[in-house]
Design brief:
This protein has 3 domains: 225 residues, P-loop containing nucleotide triphosphate hydrolases (Rossmann fold, 3-Layer(aba) Sandwich), CATH 3.40.50.300; 84 residues, Translation factors (Elongation Factor Tu (Ef-tu), domain 3, Beta Barrel), CATH 2.40.30.10; 105 residues, Translation factors (Elongation Factor Tu (Ef-tu), domain 3), CATH 2.40.30.10. The protein starts with 5 loop residues before the first strand and ends with a strand. By secondary structure, the protein is α+β, with helices and mostly antiparallel strands. The protein is 18% helix and 35% strand. The chain is globular and about 70 Å long.
Amino acid sequence: MLAPDVASNGHGVRAQTTELLRIATAGSVDDGKSTLIGRLLHDSSAVLDDQLEHVVETSERRGDGYVNLALLTDGLRAEREQGITIDVAYRYFQTRRRKFILADTPGHEQYTRNMVTGASTADVSIVLVDARKGVSEQTRRHAYITSLLGIRHLVVCVNKMDLVDYEENVFYAILEELTDWGARLQIPDITFIPISALHGDNVVERSWAMPWYGGAPLLYHLEHVVIAPDRNLTDVRFPVQWVIRPMSSEHHDYRGYAGQLASGLLRPGSEVLVLPSGRRTEVTAIDTLDGELEVALPPMSVALRLSDALDISRGDMVVGLEDPPPAAREIDAIVCWMHEQPLRVRGRYALKHTTRSSRVVVDQLEHRVDVNTLAHAPSSELALNEIGRVRLRSSAPLIVDPYSRNRTTGSFILIDEATNETAGAGLVLSAR
């Protein structure tokens, strides 16, 4: 039985009729990011009447002189008092064409770890630039993190165009500078949109104040950006999360392997390998709470039934026969450090990768990345919010892909075993 609310697509499978787009936003302090998000929510009719009334009352009490839509998103008192975004907040809205999950991430260098966390699952990154100030170090940092996380679509919103008299030359000067920078980052799709979040120019509706801009407004672009080719439908990767054995009289012989399909397509009859054992078997059925599926595609959560009674447990991975990932003990990776105590060579951590865990040792810290210039600098440690390349040695084999190939099986977190806190987020470059 097929999942509800689906329609056929060009792959001969079924896909949701209302596609979900995950968006991450970032901007320097006072670039107007919170105002932009508030404008998107307001002008797309995603704000409830009582929410808007509260914003109007608060704006009047603060003496803003206008309806301050930034108050829709700056939820923490500290954010309102300081005028900056500190924590990651998720906003949900929908149009007839798409559903959106928008991660409102902080842009300041002090909160790099928060931005990495919020943007890690995004399809599109929106970076704001103040038209008066132009490209800043933080703008370059945000573009670099977009590239680092494998986000293939970057939207640069040049905000506050109303404060530069909607000058065309100002917009194109920023476009040229960031286009050159983007070429170094290898982001395949960069779109530039001149906007005024305060007045709504080119946010939901086209701006008549900028007739020289021939592109679409922001919301139209978000509704139509093509993300289907970004998904890896070739490499089957199914980390086993749980083994289902009901042991009831009705289901005495049932054995299912539950998890979330990270990539690839699975059908009954698909031949697969189980790693790390290397045993070969066949998928006989794909189960959900709504019944059996003819095909599973990412990121569906399903239970697989296999033709052979194999010894499979949590942490194993079901993969396709073609080009399976290695079971590696040595990993080269980029790590964003998130802990007050710095990462040092010979440091020991717990590593969590998909549904598998192991202990690792930092064998080498190759360099630290200056995210403003992309220069590689030698370093003996990685401090909080710094990014660097490391080599890790694992106590148990890890079934990994390069992050550039698979964002799920190519990512991991490092955990401080003493405190059980997340210490770092890693992206696999190579494994052996």
